[in-house]
Specification:
The protein contains six helices and no strands. It folds into two domains: 69 residues, no CATH class; 45 residues, no CATH class. The site of zinc ion has 6 residues, from loops.
Length: 124
């Protein structure tokens, strides 16, 4: 068993000037570094206070979503996603509506044209 103090020491190296991606890469680097020494994801997870499977998944590219996991890895909690200006809903992937191809400029709705002009998108 790893003490709570040790978990905190390993998990809470946070520099607020770094962005989320840099922090995530740093967390991955630390997880892989510990795996290189321990050679066991369950033990690596135990050190950071997260499940071994999660430690493995984060080290191999998954971004943790649970606030407690993010905290344990020294990542900021996820903020609110912005509402898509095209379809007016929140989505994580690229907008499906923006991929819709209008036949020509005259069949494209005015609001779509306006958005494309304002956001410097080509019309096709
Ligand atoms: Zn959208």
């Amino acid at each position: 068993m790893v003490s709570k103090a040790k978990k905190g020491r390993l998990g809470a190296i946070v520099n607020p000037s770094q962005n989320n991606l840099q922090l995530l890469e740093e967390a991955r680097r630390r997880l892989k570094e510990r795996y290189g020494i321990l050679n066991n994801w369950a033990l690596v997870g135990e050190e950071f206070g997260i499940p071994g499977g999660t430690a493995h998944a984060v080290a191999h590219g998954r971004e943790p979503k649970k606030p407690e996991t993010r905290k344990a890895l020294g990542l900021p909690e996820l903020g609110q996603a912005p509402i898509c200006p095209i379809c007016n809903v929140v989505h994580t992937k690229s907008c499906r509506k923006s991929r819709y191809k209008y036949k020509d400029l005259f069949s494209t709705p005015v609001e779509v044209l306006l958005f494309q002009l304002q956001n410097r998108r080509s019309y096709n």
